[in-house]
Amino acid sequence: MRDDFCAFILTHGRPDRVHTYDTLMRAGYTGKVFIVIDDEDKTAAEYRARFGDKVLQFCKAEWAEKTDEGDNFQQEGHRVCTQCLLGIGAASWVPILCAVRR
Known about the structure:
Blueprint: E1 5-10, H1 19-26, E2 32-38, H2 44-51, E3 55-58, H3 60-66, H4 76-88, E4 92-97
Parallel strand pairs: 1-2, 1-4, 2-3
């Protein structure tokens, strides 16, 4: 896997059910993976216990002020991923929304 690529998994409130991460690991993905959560997530400590330094947390209100919320999808998480690249040394990334199994 390229050293300058990473995957960001955007999730909220389901630290025990990050199926996307589990699927990537089962598939043999060896690249960098980060779990992106906002500061309104009451389960942040559980994410950190499971994923350690792979967890990136952002202030939702702060990013909402910096971005156009003219859409209905509240995409602050996607925008924050671009900023995170600067701190982790990745040149490219893929955002993945963590799907919920029903």
